[in-house]
Write a structure and sequence with these properties.
The structure is a homodimer. By secondary structure, chain A is α/β, with parallel strands linked by helices. Helices cover about 45% and strands about 15% of the residues of chain A. In chain A, the strands form 2 sheets. Chain A has an 8-stranded parallel barrel with strand order 1-2-3-4-5-8-9-10, surrounded by 6 helices. In chain A, strands 6-7 form a two-stranded antiparallel ribbon. In chain A, helix 2 runs parallel beside helix 4, helix 2 runs parallel beside helix 13 and helix 5 packs parallel to helix 7. The relative contact order of chain A is 0.15.
């Protein structure tokens, strides 16, 4: 369990707000790992060992594990067990459903006795409204990371619709702020939307924002920080492919570390510029 | 694989448009089943045996299986294997994510070689737009069942927002109709919204609508049919708790059959009234 204050302290101490996305695709990991009983787990362990002093969060993407059935779920459970407890663990699952179903998803990702896993946070889709969110918040200290403005092309289809309560993504943030404070809700805001961060900070001045889309998707870290950082940092910037696939050889973990170090250095400069550290 | 035409023929033949929701909660199934190696699978098999001539679809709710970790996923896979191939198999998973992630979810639920399962259809949340949907449509003959207007209280939070393209749920239907035809997309419309069906039929005259919310949630079958049925029926009405938990004793399967039979009789009357059969 990682509180808001612990997260802020961790960012100041490590001078980093990096989240490493464990979108581990068995087709893309180095071939020599195939000899291990669980190549995906072995890959993740080495990535975690190589990066945990440089990042504040890990975010396995559930889809990549579910695509391999029972074996994949076992890799996810074993990866969760291996995550360092001082880093925020986020399951990127985007589950949103009505109350009695969201309770079951909460068991799946927050209740170790039921499922073998207990992440600190889960990404949730807002379309079904408060039922989709409140079941997760019933777990003391756990976080909901709600989709607001996502990084891919499809974000334009609905998230920018003008509604009678502002743009749809603004309406989502305003409504969700009535369900829980910045101690329990974060929002997903894509790095490819950097100029929108000024607007988002009007509605979510204190919330942490989970920011995908740096690297492979083309977002700029400097822009995200310029428009989105608040006095406590307030950002967790995710990088997946650019770190975990930095090399496809036996040196993949060292290459991942080099890339994470590169990002941490840029992050330190941004934190200093903003006076957070 | 079940085409639109096959589904319509099946409805006419069975005089039913019932979907049995397999929201199987290990805490709620009869105690005597606990002696079986997989009590959830045993429960599902007996429910399927008792109802498959009375319904046209089965819809396992992924959350109920995921909440039990690896054991639960194995129950889901084995349940999928047991489903009769002439019934539409819908995985109620509500997964919506960007392209490369939706591709992985598609593998998880549509690609038996990857995950052990290949459902005919999957429920998807629209918030992330077309990326969230098109990866599933890349599988020939598979269906996307997109959330439009859901049955629980949280549906009021965003789905009814007035946007510059109509109410949000209308905007979702209008946009999604540009991604695929009624041969590949269905919409979720809650039975508790029966008077809205007239409006929905303006935008989705030919699509099948998957309708949860009859029974435990209070929706009326007669109202749904009055406002929502089209010339091919165009409705798949789901019932979960009212059928699968009709009895908590050793007679649970017989009780489930009696309840399914009762619904099928009401459905036959509605189909006859509308001139579909």
């Amino acid at each position: 369990m990682i509180s808001r204050l612990q997260l802020i302290n961790q960012i100041k101490q490590k001078k980093s707000f990096l989240c490493v996305g464990l979108d581990t695709d068995i087709e893309k990991i180095p071939a020599f790992l195939k000899e291990y009983p669980d190549p995906v787990l072995e890959f993740n362990k080495r990535i975690i060992d190589a990066t945990n002093d440089l990042c504040v969060a890990y975010k396995p993407n559930a889809a990549f594990y579910e695509s391999r059935g029972v074996k994949g779920l076992q890799s996810l459970i074993d990866t969760w067990k291996y995550l360092p407890k001082d880093c925020l663990s986020i399951i990127d699952a985007k589950r949103g459903d009505m109350g009695n179903t969201s309770e079951m998803y909460a068991k799946a990702f927050f209740d170790e006795r039921a499922s073998g896993m207990s992440f600190d946070a889960i990404t949730v889709s807002p379309y079904m409204g408060h039922d989709a969110v409140t079941s997760y918040l019933a777990y003391p200290g756990k976080w909901v990371v709600l989709l607001a403005l996502t990084s891919s092309a499809g974000s334009k289809d609905f998230q920018y619709l003008t509604t009678d309560r502002g743009l749809l993504y603004e309406a989502v943030i305003k409504k969700a702020n009535t369900w829980a404070s910045a101690d329990r809700i974060m929002y997903v805001v894509g790095a490819t939307k950097s100029t929108e961060f000024t607007n988002i900070r009007k509605y979510a001045p204190d919330n942490f924002l989970l920011v995908p889309g740096i690297g492979a998707q083309g977002g700029s870290l400097a822009d995200v920080c310029h428009y989105g950082m608040n006095k406590d940092c307030g950002l967790i910037v995710n990088a997946s492919r650019s770190i975990i696939y930095a090399s496809n050889g036996e040196d993949f973990a060292e290459a991942a570390r080099a890339e994470a170090l590169n990002m941490r250095q840029q992050m330190q400069a941004e934190l200093e510029k903003a006076g957070v550290v």
